[in-house]
Structures are given as C-alpha cells and as structure tokens.
Amino acid sequence: MYDEWEEKYNAANTFRTADNYTPKQDFIEKEKKLITIDYLNLLNQFLDKRKALFPNEKTVLTDDITSLKSKISLQDETLIGNENYLIYLLYELTKNDDRDIDKNLKEIDAISTLKPSQFKNRLLFNYLKNNIKEANSAETRLQLVENYADKITDSKLNKSILHIFKTYERLGRGKIADDIIATNLDSKTFSLTNFKGKYVVIDVWATWCGPCLYQSPYFEKMALKYKKKTSNS
What we know:
This protein is mostly helical.
C-alpha cells in the first residue's frame, strides 16, 4: 500500500492540466494531501477488518505507515470541507471510544472536546448544521443545540447555527406553514390558506430540467389520484 501511495504522491509533482499547464504549488500540495487521505482511509478500513478477524492481536504499524499518517494534520482548515478528510478525521478522533452509543454522538462529543480554535468552531458548526438538518425529531434538534451550540465560540457561527435551528423548528412536522401568495394558470391570485384542511403538494421543477420532465407524468398521475380522494372525503 505504501509503495502505491508513494508512486501516486510523487506523480502529483508532475501533474499537468488538459491544456498542458502546471498548476500552482498550493494546488499540488492539496492534491498530495487528498491522495494521502485516500490511502489512510483504506488503511483504517483494513485495520478495522483485521481487528474483527483477530480481536486478540495488536497490529503494529511500520515506520513508513507512521510517517504517512504524520503528513495529515487533524486540524487542517484547508480540508475542512472535504468529505474524505472528515471521514479520516472523525475516525481518528473516535477510534478509542468504546462506548455503546450512536456513532454520530461519539463524533460530535469528540469534536466538542477539541481545544478552542477556529478549526473547531468551523468543524462543529458544519457537523451541527448537518445533524440538525437530518434530525428526525424536534427533541433531537433541541438536544443537539442545547448540548453543543455554546461550544462554538465564534459569535457569527454561533448565531448562524441558532438561526438554522430556528428555521428547521419553524418548518418542522406539525408546525403551521408560512402562507404563500401565488398566481395560477388563469392569472388569478391565491394563497396557501385557501387550501386549509386539504392535502397540498408543492412540486418545484423547470422546463430545462431533464429529470423534472421525466418525472412530470408520474407527478400528474399522483395528483389526479389524490384529487379524487380529497374530493370524495
């Protein structure tokens, strides 16, 4: 694995664009980091599988692999938006956490215990934002904000995560929808309140969108199906 990584890592120094241009050095350095991260993620997958097969044996890393791991910082702000880097980072932060709890909780706990820094602020903000979005209940969202929002010490990011939380709370299941004023095909104005007590489906699409056009007949079929149901109720 190390030999294959080394070959690709060194090849990044001679990378050329399709127009035969040499990228700037900062681009090359980032590309080398991303190559390294890919192999470190493969390494961690291997270590997990080996641990499952041989739980009583300890895997000793070679000096080459140890030097490979040293090339990636666990607080690299330039990589904070890269998915593979986050996979590697969160694995490293939680690999010794043997608690029988949800994986996401382990990860956010680990992030919250990092030393105060802008890296921690940005990482915790992004992680909280995604978990608030994916939360399946208002209680889960509230718990996330109450437990972790105040650990974001950057005032702008802190206000932003609270704004995101309030937005999802306002749009959550069971909440009254904001009124919408629109115009129908007959140029008549109507509002969402005109349909109170009825099922309302909002389909957002565009004439230039291929998948939208493909889906349109199915949507119209469902609209007719539920229109008959509501008219009979």
